[in-house]
Structures are given as C-alpha cells and as structure tokens.
Design brief:
Length: 308
C-alpha cells in the first residue's frame, strides 16, 4: 500500500511543541496501520484542519469515506459519541471508530462549505440543523457549567487595564455567574463549534455537519461562531452592526432560540475568547501580537452589535 503523504502545512505543526512533534512523527505509521486494519485504500490527497488529518479512502465495499485521525486532546475525546448519537441525522455518518487512537471512519462529504452560499441562506441552514442536533446530552459529556465556572473565574481576575472595555468584562462575569445558577446551562448535547466551515455539502443530504466538540450544554451557546466567522463579508456590507444582528435574528428565528438568551451567551463567549487570547499571549515570547489585537477588535465589535 502506497504511503499517505502528510501535508507540509500540517507537518509544520511540530513546531508547536514536543507533544505535537512526537505525534506527527508517529502519524504515518498510525495511518498505515489503520488503513490495513480497516481494509481501506487511499482515494486522494490527504487534507487537514487545525488538529486532524483527513484521508479520502475507499472501503472494502468501495464506499467513499474519510479516515480522520486527530491529535489527542480533550475536545476530541467524545466526537465519536456525538456522531453515534446523531446517527447521520444532520451530521456525517460514523462508520467506525477507535477512540483510543483518536481515529474515525466517516461518511465522505463534498469539500464545498457554507462559505459558498449567501449569508442568509447559510444562517438558515445552520438554524435548521440546530433542532436536529440539539438532543438530550449523553452522560459521558462534560457539562458546560464546569467550563463556565473556570472561565468566569478567569474573567473576574482580569486587570482593569486588560485590552478591552472593562464594562464588558464585568458584564461577562455577571452573565457567567447567572449561567452557573441556571440548570438550563447543561443538559443538551451541543456541537460547540458549529459555523460555516463545519457544514459541508453532501450527497445523502444537502448539508451535513462535521467536527463536533460536544458538551452537555445550552443550545443558545452555539450561535456565537456564526457571528465571528465570515467576518470580512460582514465588514464589507457597510453596516457591520446590521449584518451581525441579521445573522443572529435568522439563526434564532429559524432555530427556535430565545433572542435575549442567545445575546447573553454571545457576550459571554466573546469575552471568553478575549480571555483565552490574553492567557495564550502571557505564555508566548513577545506577548500580545497583531493577531491578538485584531481578535480583541472583532470580539468587541460583536458584543456592541448584539447589545441593544
């Protein structure tokens, strides 16, 4: 069997540290082993995202599929459970899994994503998917409230001179504490990273979701990534506030979500993104960089847009 070439841009992630370097060094053999054990043959060039290699393959029955092998990390531990639970309803079908090796065999979708359709249509597609994906949470999933507790503590510890308006930090802390007191913060299986790039065109259904990072949470937590993605297009509209509010209105209306609760989760989640960028910069030589500052600007712009 011919070896699968690891894309150079993915191999370059070895620079992220020894754990990445060791995993990438072992990845070619891991892929070869999986291909042999699962009786798969490569069927095109491997692709990749931030944390996973995706190899187009054919099964023993000549079905088009994708072998996905993910760098081991917490968010990927339960992907197979979510896909099993959805059983192809709105998401790619899981054909086989080896959770210990972070390996999945998936139904193959097309490469076209929701960036290829008008913005309103993309939001309508995702809004319709919400109702199919938001099912009672599996007991194995991490409760969102456990994350919210940690993030709220981190936000509360930010100094007043953090590079975003302090009133938004205070608002996010208050929202986090309110969410912690609310039983509805947990209990529903949510994707957590559902945006334009994680919905692909397909044969079995027009659009299928990929790459869940599932938790037991609140459906309203899902909306924020649809606002910060496709950013340049929102800016180019000439009315950023209107463009972002329009997205949120379509997503909540079609998805049957409460507008005010969605707004509160958007504010909290955008400030958490700011927190993570500040924490990452503190561990990086040189501290904050231009990309961090751009992210702060995006986060503040989204918050201002959704607040009345």
């Amino acid at each position: 069997m011919s070896p699968v070439a690891i894309p150079p841009a993915f191999a370059a992630r070895a620079a992220l540290g020894p754990a990445w370097a060791d995993w990438l060094d072992a990845l070619p053999r891991l892929v070869r082993d999986l291909l042999a054990e699962w009786d798969l043959r490569p069927d095109g060039d491997a692709r990749h995202g931030e944390c996973a290699l995706a190899v187009p393959v054919r099964t023993a029955t000549d079905r088009a599929a994708v072998l996905k092998v993910t760098w081991p990390h917490e968010e990927a531990m339960t992907e197979h459970l979510a896909l099993q639970r959805w059983h192809g309803g709105g998401a790619v079908e899981l054909l086989r899994a080896d959770p210990h090796r972070y390996a999945l065999l998936l139904e193959r979708a097309h490469t076209a994503d929701l960036l290829t359709v008008p913005d309103d249509e993309a939001c309508e597609v995702v809004g319709r998917l919400y109702s199919r994906l938001h099912v009672p949470a599996l007991p194995q999933l991490t409760p969102l409230s456990s994350w919210v507790a940690r993030w709220t503590e981190g936000l509360a510890a930010l100094p007043r001179n953090a590079p975003v308006p302090h009133r938004f930090v205070e608002q996010a802390v208050a929202l986090g504490r309110a969410f912690l007191a609310d039983p509805a913060t947990d209990g529903t299986m949510i994707h957590t990273d559902l945006h334009h790039l994680n919905v692909l065109a397909a044969e079995r259904e027009p659009w299928l979701v990929i790459d869940p990072k599932p938790v037991s949470g609140d459906p309203h937590y899902e909306v924020a990534p649809m606002l910060w993605n496709r950013w340049d297009e929102a800016v180019a509209s000439g009315d950023l506030r209107w463009a972002l509010r329009r997205r949120m209105d379509v997503l909540t209306d079609v998805g049957g979500l409460d507008h005010d609760r969605t707004r509160d989760w958007v504010v909290f989640r955008m400030m958490c993104n700011v927190l993570w960028a500040i924490e990452d910069a503190a561990e990086r030589p040189g501290g904050l960089n231009d990309e961090d500052r751009r992210w702060f600007d995006v986060s503040v712009a989204v918050i201002k847009a959704v607040l009345d």
